[in-house]
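Recap from last week: sequence in, structure out.
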Amino acid sequence: MAVLQHEMTLGDAADLLSQSLPGHRVEILQGRLTVTPPADGSHALSLTWLVEAFAGAGARRAGLRYVQVIGLWLPTLPDDYAVPDFSVVDEDFRDAHVAKNCYAPNVFRLIVEVTSSNWADDLGPKVECYAQAGVPAYLIVDRKHDEVLLYQDPADGEYPAPRHYKRGQSVPVPESVGLTLDLSVDTLLDGD
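Predicted structure tokens:
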């Protein structure tokens, strides 16, 4: 009897997990496969509020699109990709499709992650990966530590130290994004 063996790549394993775990987010960060369960209501409300805030600030008139859970192809390892919670991208981002649901890093202007059970990934590997990808601004809504962090202007694959924002403050969207908008820390943390 013949035995057929098939070596599975990390990308193949990610595809299988995506198919067998609907609603879960599958990512490959620095060669490590991660799976995150669906988010809670406050997380979802924060993202909905971001859509409304960017719409109200005229993002589309500024030639931008704001999207949820589209992939970012990462330059770290061959199969690496992330699926940010919320991104502000160039209007023509679909022309930069790489593979699967992932797009080239150069079309991303701002990435927002709202922490959930995978908060350590948002505060660690994703900071490194997004800096190496050259994403101009990375905003972390850190519900674990009740603050918002803003990383911006990566140089040589690293972000300088982040700016920390506490409750009662607003986070100015960096000029590199291409529009003027202040985001309430309380609303980012709690949802609308």
